[in-house]
Amino acid sequence: MKLQRPVISILLRYVNHGNKKDVNYLIAKAMLDNYELIGDKTIHEMAELCFVSASSLSRFVKVIGFDNYSDFKESAINIIDIDVDYSIEVSRAKKEDLIPIFNQYTENIIDNIQFFNENINFEQLNKLTEMIYKSENIIFLGLEFATLIGYHFQIKMAELNKHIKIGDTYEEQFELVNNMPDKSLIIIASLEGGYFYRNYDIIKILEEKKSDIIVLTMNEHIKPVQHIASEIVVISKSNSNTEGRISLLYAIETLIMLYYINYKNV
Length: 266
Prior knowledge:
By secondary structure, this protein is of the alpha/beta class. The protein folds into 2 domains: 7-77, Winged helix-like DNA-binding domain superfamily/Winged helix DNA-binding domain (Arc Repressor Mutant, subunit A, Orthogonal Bundle); 102-263, Glucose-6-phosphate isomerase like protein, domain 1 (Rossmann fold, 3-Layer(aba) Sandwich). Helices cover 57% and strands 8% of the residues. The chain has 14 helices and 5 strands. The chain has a 5-stranded parallel β-sheet, with helices on both faces. Strand 4, helix 13 and strand 5 form a beta-alpha-beta unit. Helix 10 (170-178) runs parallel beside helix 12. The protein is globular, with a radius of gyration of 21 Å.
């Protein structure tokens, strides 16, 4: 099973939104408390740590989308560590380095926002809002952080009477794309273009269907983006220490604001 969200995020989501009296909530909480041990534990050993039977644990991992405990365990082990979010400078930083690092991080955020603001193509953005307004089926695609921003976009657009579809997992996104009608509108948020390389089957379907595709990215020149995009919006110029995430939010807020201005009274 391919996941847009890491296992730890799935468990956190279950704990955040689950019924605290439900056994599955207790399993998720116990797994988070013992997360670093999952890779070394059999299903029976992990069940003991969760104070449930192995069969209960087996049912739980299926509830959260895995075929079996081995599948769950493998996904928990093969995580993308937080170290990949940061430059070597930040990874090696000590306490005395914090002020210059934070100053540089803030400057990068400001530079990115100024870059987006100075290069706004209002003709293009108005066209995008018109595409959203006229489309009867809109799907938002992205990896973990982009999906979180996508949920915010979904909520604000719903307040403007426009429904956006979104999925957490690879399977949910694949199903949305596979079942979408022709002439749907797809919005892909992928700062560095990773979505296109990690979701080949979804991209292949998009290529085969007659849909307009809006890509929000900082890597507009990579081949998959050039090949598939109807519209490319360059939203940032750097993302060495996650500052590009702020640019994505800024771009989404800009799009929401413009849609509101153009269509609030329609």
